[in-house]
Amino acid sequence: MAAWLEKLLVYCYARIPAALRPAFRSVFFWGQIRAEALVSRRRVRYGQRVSFLDFEIAHLEPFEYLSPRPNEVEIKTHCSTVSPGTERAVLCGLPGARKTFPYFPGYSCAGEIVATGSRVKGFKLGDRIAGRVRHLSGESVGTDFIFHIPEGVSYESASLIELGIITLQGLRKARIQPGDVVAVLGQGLIGQLAGRLARAGGASRVIAIAPTRNRARAALAPGGATEFVAMRESAFSPSSIAADVVIEAVGTPDAIATATLCARPGGRVVLLGSSRGLSRNVNLAALLQHRDIELVGAHISDMPATEASPGRHTYRQEGELFLDMLRTGRLSVTDLVTWRAAPDECNAVYETLAKGGREHVAMVLEWQRSVTNGK
Amino acid sequence: MKPLQIGIVGAGGIAQRNAREAVASGAARIVGVFDVNHRAAREMAKALQSRFIPSYEELLADLEVEAVLLSTPHHLHRPMAIEAASRGKHVLVEKPVANNLDEARQMWDACQRAGVQMTVNYSFRYLPRIQKAKQLVDAGALGDIVGIQIINHQFKDAGYWSGARSNSPDDWRASREKCGGGFLIMNVCHVIDYLYYVTGLKAARVYSEYATLGSPAEVEDIISVSCRMNNGAIGSISASSIMRGTDQAEERIWGTNGSMILTSDGLSVYSTRAVDGRRPGKIHDLKKFPEVSWTAEWVKAFAHSVRTSGPPEISYADAWENLAFIQTAYQSMECQRPLDVPAFEARQ
């Protein structure tokens, strides 16, 4: 939309009485999508999606989208996995995650293709796919961020794909060597995946560290961590961990300091959690410099789009690897799913998440349960 | 189901309303009407197409009478209820159950001994908006309740206190001995009852300040109460019968997940949860409720409990807890410190 037209609309909108604005918005968007459908010769589709209406309020609501463009596919979602860190941060307004509401969360889902654009290559009707899609029953998306789900991998497991990619790119930057002692600080979903991928990557010992033993069973499952340390339940001394590599998967500045203390002198700390907030009076000399600690930033936004290099794979490479590990059984995530919710339970799911969600690891929305797909 | 045969005791304004609604409930038949004011009782009996009974003794001796509906001054509740029970009559009594907990206990004991049932007219809880509020609270719309506020102000003129505006003039409402208290025990007790009912909470500790600042009465006409509920929530009451020119009646309940405002028009609710199929994060005004006679519902429910020998929906425990709150609130100012509200179970 042209900037002048947008300004004019905002000017007019501001002069509408507040009570009439919701109705005006509905009419405007109703007309806008139909005008776009007419111009681009596409059809209006009806779906449902999760919407954050305000802080700590999630709601399942109907929405409209258009059938795919020539380079898009339309997907019908089967499962979408809640990203506990990012989505909770937005839901609760944590530092650095401020968004305007309504906000439509989600970026890790699995489903099937129900329509394809005329210029799409490599994907066809009925293909099972997983990728970066929001929490919704269906949508038209480009093919850059979707992957074929291999035979034998369930929609549910595949729906963890984006979280798997996030973890894999971090583990790759950790440069774990066979025989390394790896500590994973934080046992949320990313921490649990990191423990399992570290084992698969050759670590001899994987020490899972969390405040309590709430998630110990999942962490110590076959293929996962070899030890579990509950910081609040024992005389926890970070220096006793002495790990070669520490994966920080909490997402707070204080956790970075703790992770650093868990590393042996000369060790490496990978910042996998999306740290939010500020920390003051950090003695970097004592934490890092005097102990020769290497601090590695590992956010998914830092991944190369196309050009891979040693230690830096592309988004597509990591996604395909994650799905292949699921296919071959080198990685299992089924037991990490602690809440399989119907979409209309999203309000309760996110209420639990807003309170910390400590009793859960992965929460999956199952879109084929009581979803009417709109009208 | 055979209608409950009721003897009406008292012919004041509320008594007339209670009797009319009892008939309208379809679950009761008025056998006779008694009041010390014979003229008022005769007129009322005529209007109800019932018969005038000249004394309470004769009413209780009437074999047709299965239950008495006592709409009399508070201090008469105890002796009249005990006498009725001793004659094998079930008891419907106006609120409050009595002027203090000892009197209430004596009434209950008499009913227990005689094997008859007793209920107290806290019938506002049958109002559709109150039922809706309870349904929303039970469904978790508010989450864990953290605050309750009652605002209730009106103006009661000199005629109210002298009884001049009543068809059966009597100044008992101005007497502490006869009435047990003022605006709190006389009017706000209804609100306390239905908020107990809606929230399922009871007050655990209470402190009040009250005074008589603008009425020809011994009892309070303004009161402020602070209390802590048994779940830790904090409550407050601001009430008076000396606010001229405006009526205020509003209750607010709020919790970890929402808030609710109850007014005489209806209720508004805000919740972070999609309760009752309503969009969360939005204030919903619920105003269209069916017209229901709360008194008729009360009589109907009691008649059913008598016929089925089940416990009354509005029980002695409900009335006792209501009175325990009120009595403790009054006592707290007298001794100038917060007091624990006795729990029903502990005293029985």
Please provide a written account of the structure:
The complex is a heterodimer of chains A (375) and B (348). Chain A has helices at residues 3-14, 21-40, 84-92, 155-158, 161-174, 189-200, 216-219, 253-262, 284-289, 315-328, 346-354; strands spanning 44-54, 57-66, 72-81, 109-116, 128-131, 138-142, 146-148, 181-185, 205-210, 227-230, 243-248, 263-271, 294-297, 337-341, 362-366. By secondary structure, chain A is of the alpha/beta class. Chain A folds into three domains: 1-41; 43-160 and 333-366, Quinone Oxidoreductase, Chain A, domain 1; 163-305, NAD(P)-binding Rossmann-like Domain (Rossmann fold). In chain A, strands 3, 4, 5, 6, 7, 14 and 15 form a seven-stranded mixed β-sheet that branches. Chain A is globular and about 65 Å long. Chain A starts with a helix and ends in a 9-residue tail after the last strand. By secondary structure, chain B is α/β, with parallel strands linked by helices. Chain B folds into two domains: 4-123 and 295-313, 3-Layer(aba) Sandwich (Rossmann fold); 125-291 and 323-344, Dihydrodipicolinate Reductase, domain 2. In chain B, the strands form two sheets. In chain B, strands 14-13-12-11-7-10-9-8-15 form a nine-stranded mixed β-sheet. In chain B, strand 1, helix 1 (13-24) and strand 2 form a beta-alpha-beta unit. The longest helix of chain B is centred in the C-terminal third of the chain and has 20 residues, at 316-335. Chain B starts with a strand and ends with a helix. Chain A binds chain B through residues 53-54, 56-61, 344, 347-348, 351, and chain B through 257, 272-274, 279-282.
SSE order and pairing:
The complex is a heterodimer of chains A (375) and B (348).
Chain A (H helix, E strand, L loop, with lengths): L2 H12 L6 H20 L3 E11 L2 E10 L5 E10 L2 H9 L16 E8 L11 E4 L6 E5 L3 E3 L6 H4 L2 H14 L6 E5 L3 H12 L4 E6 L5 H4 L7 E4 L12 E6 L4 H10 E9 L12 H6 L4 E4 L17 H14 L8 E5 L4 H9 L7 E5 L9
Parallel strand pairs in A: 8-9, 8-11, 9-10, 11-12, 12-13, 14-15
Antiparallel strand pairs in A: 1-2, 3-4, 3-6, 3-15, 4-5, 5-7
Helix pairs in contact in A: 5-6, 5-10
Chain B lengths: L3 E6 L3 H12 L3 E7 L3 H10 L3 E2 L3 H6 L5 E4 L3 H13 L3 E4 L7 H14 L3 E3 L7 H11 L6 E9 L4 H5 L13 H4 L3 H17 L3 E9 L10 E8 L4 E7 L7 E8 L2 E6 L2 E6 L11 E4 L7 H15 L7 H20 L3 E2 L3 H4 L1
Parallel strand pairs in B: 1-2, 1-4, 2-3, 4-5, 5-6, 7-10
Antiparallel strand pairs in B: 7-11, 8-9, 8-15, 9-10, 11-12, 12-13, 13-14
Helix pairs in contact in B: 1-10, 4-5, 5-11, 6-9, 9-11
